[in-house]
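The authors assume throughout that readers already know how a fold can be written as discrete tokens. In essence, backbone conformation is discretised, so a fold becomes a row of integers matching the chain in length. A single example would do more here than another paragraph of explanation. For illustration, here is how one protein appears when written out as sequence plus structure tokens:

…
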Amino acid sequence: MSIQFREELANLSPYKPGRPIDDVKREYGLQDVIKLASNENPFGCSPKAIEAIKNSLNNLGLYPDGNCTLLKEALSKKLNISVNNIILSSGLDEMMDLLAKTFFNKGDEAIMADITFPRYIATTMMMGAKPVIVPLVNWTYDLNGILNAITEKTKLIWLCNPNNPTGTMFTEKELIDFLDKVPENIVVVYDEAYREFVTRDDYTKDSLPLLKKYANLIILRTFSKIYGLAALRVGYTMASEEIITNINKVRGPFNVNTLAQVAAIAALEDEDFLRKAYEANVEGKEYLYKEFDKLNLEYAPSETNHIFVNVQKDGSEVFVELQKRGVIIRPQFGQWIRVSIGTMEENRVFIEKLKEVLGK
């Protein structure tokens, strides 16, 4: 008799991250490879974070603070929110799993977009809940379509703003109008992983006051993107004390390691690093827009550190051909790819190699 696995796993596939640089070097015998596949900060992280890590290396034999006390206090002070409304996780991927374990019963429904962060659908299905998919409109969330998809079985709604992989966003007014119409018993998970890159004035610059009005709202943020701490895996979530208490019931006791905690605290203090990363991202985005315009390539307007672009050839083929030339991007579907915004040198190399692949 063979081993039996949970039936919910039958239709799931392992997550495929962006290819590591060393893998591509080995496969194609390359010395230089740039990675523009995983929306990482091309400038690394704050020097203050590196120094904090070095100063904590003699503590590796000890378990981390399971409560993340000092990091919570630092976030509380910076964001003007109670420590009781904050919970830390090993990246937002872990938090999405924790939310699924906290809220979903088998047969519940969760609403999400058709082109968005893939972990939403995987973690929903993992717990036996049913994904309800609402297509994007003009590569942007259709909030009215989501409202129309609500049923008696709806338990949770996943929102990503700005959205990954399309880079598009919906406005503060649209968000508030939406929250006003969502029944109070339905949880709204609002993922702001890319919030620090937004340039538009009509974005929700500070979503935290909304927690006081909407008890069903959960806000996700991360240190992986503009803070450049992707390797350490640390994200933070804000919600009502009741929600935080129940998430803690399924959270592992030492889920955020010591180095991640001290690095995040230091990174919070380095506003200069964030400003430089933001400005470089804006410069890189405008450069790529201009180059795509010259090549007559369609792209979605991005408020993130990546661009969703139609390369007019099979995206998987372009993905492989760019790798052969030392550039890693992320194929999406059909002719669409997602390219992260790198340093200006990396952006120029990408455009040069893309022209070769496209024969332009």
Observations:
- The domain at 47-269 is CATH 3.40.640.10 (Aspartate Aminotransferase; domain 2).
